[in-house]
Amino acid sequence: MTASYRIPGAGRFSHAKAASFTFDGQSYAGVEGDTLASALLANGVHLTGRSFKYHRPRGILSAGAEEPNALVQIVRDAARTTPNVRATVQELYDGLTAHSQNRWPSLSFDVGAVNDMASPFFSAGFYYKTFMWPKAAWKNLYEPKIRAAAGLGVAPDQPDPDHYSSRFAHCDVLVLGGGAAGLAAALAAAESGVRVVIADEQAELGGALRFESGARIEGQDGWSWAQGVVARLKTMPNVRVLSRTTAFGYYAQNFIGLTERVSDHLAAPGRDLPRERLWQVRAKKVVLATGSIERHMVFTDNDRPGVMLASAARTYLNHYGVAVGKNVGIFTANDSAYAAALDLKAAGIAIAAIVDLRDNPAGELVDRARAAGIEIHDGRAVVRTGGRLRVSSMTVQRRTGGGERTIAVDALLMSAGWTPSVHLFSQSRGKVVFNDEVKRFLPGTYAQDCVSVGACNGTDGLAASIDEAYAAGTKAAREARGGAAAGKSEKPAKPKVEASEGWSRGMVGAAPGAGPGTTVKAFVDFQNDVTAKDIRQAVHEGMRSIEHVKRFTTNGMATDQGKTSNMHGLAIAADELGKTIPEVGLTTFRAPYTPVTFGAIVNHARGPLFEPTRRTAIHPWAERNGAVFEDVGQWKRAWYFPQAGEDMHKAVDRECVTVRKSAGLFDASTLGKIEVVGPDAAKFMELLYTNPWEKLEPGRCRYGIMLREDGFIYDDGVVGRLSADRFHVTTTTGGAPRVMNHMEDYLQTEFPHLNVWLTSTTEQWAVIAVQGPKSREIIAPLVEGIDMADEAMPHMSVREGKICGVPTRLFRMSFSGERGFEVNVPADYGEAVWEALWVEGQKHGACAYGTETMHVLRAEKGYIIVGQDTDGTVTPNDAGLDWAVGKKKTDFVGIRGLTRPDLVAKGRKQLVGLRTKDPKIVLEEGAQIVADPKQPIPMKMIGHVTSSYWSENCGRSIALALLAGGRDRMGETLHVPMPDGVIEVEVSGTVFFDETGGRLNG
Amino acid sequence: MLLIRCPYCEEERPELEFRNAGEAHVVRSSEMTATSDEDFEAFFFIRSNPKGIIYERWRHIHGCARFFNAVRDTVTDRFVMTYKAGEKKPARLPKVGK
Question: Which chain A residues contact residue B40 at CB under 8 A?
Fold first, then answer.
């Protein structure tokens, strides 16, 4: 295999190692240092894909990130298959496997190409207009078909096995772009000692010096100078040089997002290497040296494989040593394509002709082209190309019309001029200004502390760019130091430019032959198949704003985001509207500059690292004893403990019965716990909870309700007063952080005069609830220093002492309706104390139970769960908890809200019990309640079920509900309509078991 | 990501360490029960939601945990200044650079 278009001695990879690769199953030879694009071109392959809409054959347009056409699928394995990779930036490695996209059955014969012939039907806005009716067909027919037919490439269907890393960095000067200007700015800043980061998207820094053969700096050719500067920067401890790194987003206050492609270019990346590294950099000063991008010419059939940007052909020749053809035509509106012609000619490639739109072009490059014997057709345009899978000819006509002449070519280079890359400047919210003379948008008003230098600032010529960049780098460094003198006495010398290339101007819009009134396919946006005609049609159909034209035609909306097409599209729209370009305006540049992988953004935050998993001290015991867990917020909680042969219902039924017959152990460690301490602790509690606290004796507990100012229940929990100045507050499991925040907010900002300290102790205490008639007998043998007799320690009291020799706060309280205790011990002892209690429990036939049984037991007693039986619109009165609101209090958070007209109005939803007429039917939580099931739909819904369970203890189903005027409806029969029938229910009180509460002391 | 100066820590820290806590200088009456419906509405429900300068509360929740006040421009997202909770609304705002 020989790469027949590789020119011996040309380019910078003559001695590079060979690397073989496959494209669509065919093996080819390349060298290390190639991109996939340069390697394909070296083998004479231009045809790389089919276009999105018309399935037209497409080739390689560019040699960089702006590539709209040569998108391929890179396959490492089934899980590492990446669609829409630009062949022009994918570095070659030995064994690389690539496939073309959007073609079937093959790239050279694609059935979808009938779209091209049917193109009159596929014009701008086609999808919006055609697939509107019937409505149902969109979901079932049109969308699936269109999605299958469109879509470039295939996403992997397996999880991404690669890993991605993330770094935060700070620097004084961040230079974005490593071309001549960027390097000069970085050098100037670095020499003064400040911290510098310079990033460039290419494998090697150097930017346009890759192809500018005419540049000479400091006695060397431009590329060698650049590599020398890079080497020097890399030795400096205050400088970080990032190659293969794209600055994709410019965010507030000089915060820049960069992605570094660490291993996409390696044949066998080590598992220790991340695929990409996300850099989040905060810079005092940013220097934008992002260069410019060459525009194509908009003319008929300008999309044939082999038609490409002039600078790309130069890059392939001068950098990669590859000829893009053997007989090359050129179509240009500015001088830079002449430089390409001269380089190609010097390398022995025939130049068929230069077709120049301008009349009588003049200048040094034009003279040199003439001297080299290149035929120049000035004042003329290429009006058409020939060929099918590769360009074979260009047809030339006078700009003003007349006779045609067809010239055979095997590649056609084009240049309409250069568009400054103002993407990042615009993302920084800077305002661009249009310069009509040179037909380009340039940085105008800055919004952030940055500066643009070189080509992206509209500075023409290497010498001027380096001068400007060097001065900017020096100034940025000085300002970053706060104006202090440079750290080094030796003032660095400004690089001296001895020879440079430079050009400006050019044209925007359609070339002759593709002007108004024509229906030819002259592509503006290659990736989205938008032609000049489509843009004009959008204007005719009423689009006035460029943002509307963009969305109607999809111009500039593909993965390349219109890097080559936006200016042309804008110019054609402006022309059609009869307005100037600045009047029509530029579409907004948004991040990302080039596509960013989800992997880089998601980074480590996936799988178990997506969110912290919280486990209690008793979790290992529950795991060993067969608990099934459920997620409650970030917590893993034991849900139920099935024994052999039990399903969830059998397990829960057994647990529920056992607790009421003997006792059960329950891990309540996830309850939020806040220690409220200080001389004013009681005063603070008075303000934060509805209940009175001042008179609560130390050693006693109270069920507290916390409201928001609007009067709605925010949280609840049992609070124990340990001493005059110390409360042990518990919150709901999910509510702990927000309750703490709520308390801190009031303490710091509304009641700062109170002398109180708040400490979250959720994770400090493990909590073992022992509930059931045998609970005291289970705990007592292990406890020291606490008299657990009923008289000494009544229901709702708290004692401090020891259990199993470790400190405990022992609460007597019940969330089951049975005599109950909650044993708080330091978390480190949680599992050991649980084990000891478990051994005692076994003597009494106790069981371990989980959250499901806890829920059933509390529902049997009508105890609410905030967030399940309340929803942020429920008052204490609604929930039947009026008794917990201190009637004599003059202030607490929510006191005024409770008297709002709507909150005291009749007919509010109130918490009630529901008993199904058929005791076996368990209602669905969330089901709606109606009074008359025969009324027409939509029925008037008067309430909904909040909690519903099978109660083995009651031998029937039980439910709680919020029901309009519920407490006045006791005994009423209501209805719950469900898809398979209406369920009859009777309204009852909320307590289903032990209504008198005798068992609390049983 | 914004940089926010915590007036207690006396340094700029990244936005990730902070949490917004709504509009500032909304006064809770010391006699809540005597508040009229209209005054309660203004206190609890009505917020200025300006285009431009807003006075708001932030909490340095992953730092010193203190609540403080900030002046921010809702158009540019730029923080003009921050000051401690309980301090008066500044009479004059400093000029901000880029």
Answer: 896-897, 900
State the first-to-last Cα distance of chain A, in angstroms, to the nearest integer: 92
Reference A432, options A584, A585, A544; nearest CA is A585
Helix (H) or strand (E) holding A315: helix A310-318
> Which residue has 């979901």 as its token pair?
A139
Residues of chain B in Cβ contact (below 8 Å) with chain A = 1-3, 14, 21, 28-29, 31-33, 35, 37, 40, 43-44, 57, 59, 61, 65-67, 76-78, 85-86, 97-98
The pLDDT tens digits for A941-987 are 999 999 999 999 999 999 999 999 999 999 999 999 999 999 999 99
Q: Dihedral sign, CA of A564, A569, A575, A578?
A: negative
H runs (alpha helix) in A689-781:
736-745, 775-779
Q: If DSSP codes are grouped into helix, strand and coil, which group holds residue A470?
A: helix
Separation in Å, CA of B31 to nearest CA in chain A = 8
Q: Which tokens sit at B69?
A: 């006040």
- Using CB atoms within 10 Å of the CB of residue A626, give its burial: 0 to 12 exposed, 13 to 18 middle, 19+ buried: middle
**pLDDT tens digits for A356-408?**
999 999 999 999 999 999 999 999 999 999 999 999 999 999 999 999 999 99
Q: In sequence order, which residues have a C-beta less than 8 Å from that of residue A219 and are 6 or more positions away?
A: A498
A667-858 adopts what CATH topology? Gyrase A; domain 2 (3.30.1360)
To the nearest whole Å, the CA of A170 is away from the closest chain B CA by 12
pLDDT-based confidence at residue A150 (cuts at 50, 70, 90): low
| Closest-CA residue of chain B to A897 | B40
Give the pLDDT confidence of A528-564 residue by residue, as tens digits.
999 999 999 999 999 988 999 999 999 998 888 899 9
Q: For chain A, what are the domain ranges?
A: 18-117, 119-149, 165-292+421-499, 508-593, 667-858, 859-1001
Tokens standing for A688?
């934060």
SS3 A285: strand
pLDDT at residue A453, rounded to an integer: 98
- Which residues, listed in sequence order, are joined to residue A170 by a DSSP beta bridge? A282
Tell me the CATH architecture of domain A859-1001: 2-Layer Sandwich (3.30)
CATH code: domain A508-593 is 1.10.10.1100
CATH of the domain spanning A18-117: 3.10.20.440
Domains and CATH numbers, chain B: 3-84 (3.30.2270.10)
> Is A745 close to B77, i.e. CB distance below 8 A?
no
Name the residue among A149, A124, A152, A119 with its Cα closest to residue A521.
A119
Partner-chain contact B67 A744, CB within 8 Å: yes
Angle formed at CA A244 by CA A240 and CA A246, multiple of 5 degrees: 85
- The region, left, alpha or beta by phi > 0 then psi within -120 to 50, assigned to residue A726 is beta
**For residue A322, what are the β-bridge partners?**
A6
DSSP B28-68: PPSSGGG--HHHHHHHHT-----SSEEEEEEE-TTTT--EE
Tell me yes or no: is domain A165-292+421-499 CATH 3.80.10.10.
Answer: no
Q: What secondary structure does DSSP assign to A145-212, as a single string?
A: HHHHHS--S---SS------EEEEEEEEEEEE--SHHHHHHHHHHHHTT--EEEE-SSSSS-GGGGT-
In this structure, how many other beta carbons lie within 10 angstroms of the beta carbon of residue A624? 8
Q: Contact, A244 vs A204, CB < 8 A?
A: no
Angular region, B22: left φ>0, alpha ψ -120 to 50, beta rest: left
Mean local confidence (pLDDT), A192-202: 97
